[in-house]
UniProtKB/TrEMBL annotation:
Superkingdom as given in the UniProt entry: Bacteria
Lineage: Bacteria, Bacillati, Actinomycetota, Actinomycetes, Micromonosporales
Membrane-topology annotation of the record: Multi-pass membrane protein
Compartmental location: Cell membrane
InterPro entries named among the record's database cross-references: MFS_trans_sf (IPR036259)
Name of the protein this chain belongs to: Membrane protein
Coiled coil: none
Transmembrane regions: 21-40, 46-69, 90-113, 119-135, 142-162, 168-186, 217-237, 243-262, 297-315
Taxonomic source organism: Asanoa siamensis
Major location (coarse): membrane
Length: 399
């Protein structure tokens, strides 16, 4: 599958696309409304930030404890059921019955399971679009960016006109719609793996993935260089002040353009050759910030750099190629949660550097560090070895 017409002719992909778009819009509205609600109740910027990003923080915990279930659930029932649970949680938040600490605990608990749901959703995309994962993943990435923009715009309008409680109720409607369309649009599939799941199985699966040099290199390449550049993006506000939105828009536009171009016009069979080049492109333009460029030059540099995020498409395809089917969901879930975690680490690390050097120098340091990691990992990414992760002795695919 190499064209948008082909993938959208697939009924299951249309359901995944619409369901994912509705979920992203609903979650974005929820994050914004909950942050506004907590700030109005407490006046605390810290608690407001936790309400906005708190659901992302526990994903590493979910990756370490729950990901074995990603290959041991029926995707259709799990994804639809999880959206129902998220819609109910949004209604609970909208009701106002929970204290602030209760709301924060609720979103963090759901955040831990989001790592699992991401693995299930990405893995079923491989089944729905045989040979078309890269284009399908790129298309979903574009929809995520568009729905986040729509979600922020809609959420802001709803909060201003209806208040945060009713905005949360609207978020619940979006997420419930996703549950319905996912359940009706996907067909029933059996789990990829059998056997017990849980913490020990998750740890064993993660160890299996990291024991293989190729898989380990792919995961590190997906996590570390990108996380460092996200750290550079965290410096937009200190660097540009009130005009930081220009840099954020340029970054979003570059990322969407990269997904569109690479996903559509680069065949999956040749995408491997572009991974390192795209990851280098992600960092090189940020070296210009050492010269303190004006806003126009800075925005162009950010746009060009963000095109390089499309390298993640090649890394995800390579991860699929190097992972046996009964670990596919866990591998993709680990990839997603690891990227979230390293983005937070990158933002914190670059922020610490900026405290001592200033934002422009910190962005340059992040670019140099990202390029260094990319260069160190390149030989591992080019190495040829068995494309499938070997199962540990004594196991039979049930992990």
């Amino acid at each position: 599958m190499t064209t948008y017409r082909e993938i959208f002719a697939n009924r299951e992909f249309r359901a995944l696309f619409a369901g994912n778009a509705a979920t992203v819009a609903g979650k974005t509205i929820q994050m914004l409304a909950l942050s506004a609600l907590v700030y109005a109740s407490t006046g605390s910027p810290l608690l407001s930030a936790l309400a906005f990003l708190g659901g992302l923080l526990p994903q590493a915990l979910g990756a370490m404890t729950l990901l074995a279930y990603a290959d041991r659930v029926r995707p259709r029932g799990f994804l639809a059921g999880w959206d129902v649970a998220r819609a109910i949680a949004a209604l609970v938040l909208a009701s106002g019955v929970l204290p602030v600490w209760g709301m924060l605990l609720l979103i963090m608990a759901f955040g831990a399971v989001d790592a699992l749901s991401g693995g299930v959703r990405n893995a079923i995309l491989v089944d729905v679009l045989p040979g078309g994962f890269v284009l399908g993943r790129a298309t979903l990435n574009v929809s995520v960016g568009a729905m986040q923009i729509l979600g922020f715009a809609t959420g802001g309008t709803l909060i201003a006109t209806l208040g945060p409680h009713r905005a949360l109720a609207v978020a619940a409607v979006f997420i419930a719609f996703s549950a319905v369309i996912t359940f009706l649009g996907l067909r029933t599939r059996p789990p990829r793996a059998t056997g017990r799941a849980g913490v020990s199985a998750t740890w064993q699966g993660n160890r299996t993935l990291f024991a293989n040099r190729s898989t380990r290199a792919v995961l590190l390449a997906a996590w570390v260089p990108n996380g460092l550049i996200v750290g550079a993006e965290a410096m937009y506000v200190p660097y540009a002040g009130d005009w930081a939105a220009v840099l954020f828009v340029a970054a979003a536009a570059g990322m969407l353009t990269g997904d569109l171009v690479i996903g559509r016009f680069v065949p999956p069979a040749t995408l491997n050759r572009f991974i390192t080049k795209l990851q280098a492109l992600l960092a090189v333009p940020y070296l210009l910030f050492f010269l303190h460029p004006d806003l126009t030059v800075g925005a162009v540099a950010v746009f060009v750099a963000s095109f390089g995020y499309a390298g993640t498409l090649g890394l995800q395809q390579r991860l699929i190629d190097h992972t046996p089917e009964d670990l596919r969901g866990q591998a993709l879930g680990l990839d997603g949660s690891g990227r979230m975690t390293f983005q937070a680490i990158g933002a914190g690390t670059v922020g610490l550097v900026a405290e001592a050097t200033g934002p422009a120098t910190a962005m340059t340091v992040a670019a140099i560090a990202s390029l260094t990691v990319t260069a160190l990992l390149q030989p591992r990414l080019r190495a040829r070895e068995d494309p499938r992760v070997a199962q540990p002795a004594g196991t039979s695919g049930s992990a």
